[in-house]
Amino acid sequence: MKLKSLLFLFCYGLPSLLFAQWKMVGKADYTWGPFHVYTIALYTETGEYQAGIRPLMLTIKFNKPVEGKSFAITLMKEMNSLNIEGFDKHKVLEDLQAIFPDLQPNDQLSYIAMENEGYFVLNDTVLNHNFDAAFSDAVIAIWLAENSNFSRLQKALLGDNNKNKTEKLPTDNPNIAPKKQENIDPKLDSETIIPLS
């Protein structure tokens, strides 16, 4: 069944989405203490965001290493804090922990939400699992819901630069490509769980 889903995605869905003219709505840096952990960007086909718009892409470019299993747990904790329902959270957590490798500096993890499903892309590799629309809504809500724990990132993600008019957001497409060089940044202890908020 997974093979059929992947074949369908590669034959029909993926080429159009990878070559879609993604336009950036906005981006924001997430820091934890003195550490720049990641930069997140929001993309749509129009460069504008409205609730429920699809397709939509959230892209996280990591600046620090993050253990994949811990990142999956953190996503689920954020969904729980928003009281999101509509899918089997235990099963989804298992799926996320199975597909997420440990994330390294310069890794780019994108979530592409389509009308009825969504999936993760790590650098240039589609991760082997499709998620339903309820999960897509939950991932988007982590950063964009009104009661999000990321209210300080939300304005920049939605393209509201009134606070800092001198900094223009780029409107280029995200770079989904393999890493080209070894990273020499120091790594955090692998036991450390870096919170998203």
UniProtKB/TrEMBL annotation:
Residues 162-197 are annotated as: Disordered. Residues 179-190 have a biased composition (Basic and acidic residues). It comes from the Bacteria. Keywords: Signal. Residues 35-159 form the Chalcone isomerase domain. Residues 1-20 form the signal peptide. This is Chalcone isomerase domain-containing protein.
